[in-house]
């Protein structure tokens, strides 16, 4: 019984120490992201291809750079410096870089083109949003229209070459609509579910210990 109590206490202590540290990492990455967007002032540079929080690498903000603007060491360095110029020194250690094919401006254009043409054809849209991690535009079509819409995207000259990921999806609301993310997506693993699972395990161990004690 004592071993169970000790194990439960140790697990609770680990959770107490780990969760704030994880939350701090995400907070700093989001702060860096907000500064980056503020620096753009609504105009995305062609070097920028998106951003997301990489939870598999210390919750760093992964800033994506357009490949054609980072295909040499000099261009890569210049693009990185351009992004970091918008971020406070306190958060720069929380930033990493990767390259991606399409710029964020190209993704925005693909988003608008897909939305307009699919609506014009009368297909039921569940959502249209930019997926920074996949460097693509996610398009959700109601199941009844999905097959026809997917075929239309493949055949249409204006859509077939765009970075679109078309899937069947029910509408989340009566209006359907579009859902661009306001904060960077998290990639590489789920922190909060893990913390919750550990917390539940700790509670179960504690309950078992109390039950045996009685």
What's a quick, concise take on this entry?
With 214 residues, the chain is α/β, with parallel strands linked by helices. Helix content is 49%, strand content 19%. The protein has two domains: 2-101 and 184-193, no CATH class; 105-168, GMP Synthetase, Chain A, domain 3, CATH 3.30.300.
Considering the chains and any ligands shown, give keywords for the structure.
elongated; 2 domains; alpha/beta; 7 strands; 214 residues; GMP Synthetase, Chain A, domain 3; 3-stranded mixed sheet; 19% strand
What would your notes on this structure say?
The protein is α/β, with parallel strands linked by helices and 214 residues long. It has 2 domains: 2-101 and 184-193, no CATH class; 105-168, GMP Synthetase, Chain A, domain 3, CATH 3.30.300. It is built from 5 helices and 7 strands. The strands form 2 sheets. Strands 3-2-1-7 form a 4-stranded mixed β-sheet. Helix 4 (143-155) links the parallel strand 5 and strand 6 (164-168). Helix 1 (2-40) packs antiparallel against helix 5. It is elongated.
Helices and strands in order, then pairings?
Elements: H1 2-40, E1 48-54, E2 60-66, H2 73-84, E3 95-100, H3 104-120, E4 125-131, E5 136-141, H4 143-155, E6 164-168, E7 185-187, H5 191-213
Parallel strand pairs: 1-7, 2-3, 5-6
Antiparallel strand pairs: 1-2, 4-5
Helix pairs in contact: 1-5
């Amino acid at each position: 019984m004592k071993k169970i109590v000790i194990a439960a206490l140790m697990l609770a202590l680990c959770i107490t120490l780990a969760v704030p540290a994880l939350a701090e990492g995400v907070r700093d990455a989001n702060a860096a992201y907000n500064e980056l967007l503020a620096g753009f002032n609504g105009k995305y540079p062609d070097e920028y291809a998106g951003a997301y929080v990489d939870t598999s690498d210390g919750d760093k903000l992964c800033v994506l750079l357009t490949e054609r603007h980072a295909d040499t060491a000099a261009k890569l360095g210049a693009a990185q410096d351009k992004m970091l110029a918008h971020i406070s020194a306190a958060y720069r250690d929380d930033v990493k870089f990767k390259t991606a094919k399409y710029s964020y401006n190209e993704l925005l254009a693909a988003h608008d083109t897909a939305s307009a043409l699919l609506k014009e054809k009368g297909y039921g849209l569940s959502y249209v949003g930019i997926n920074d991690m996949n460097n693509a535009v996610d398009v959700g079509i109601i199941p009844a229209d999905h097959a026809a819409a997917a075929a239309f995207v493949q055949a249409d000259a204006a859509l077939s070459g765009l970075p679109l990921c078309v899937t069947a999806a029910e509408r989340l609301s009566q209006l359907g609509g579009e859902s661009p993310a306001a904060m960077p997506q998290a990639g590489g693993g789920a922190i909060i579910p893990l913390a919750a699972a550990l917390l539940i395990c700790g509670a179960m161990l504690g309950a078992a210990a109390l039950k045996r004690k009685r």
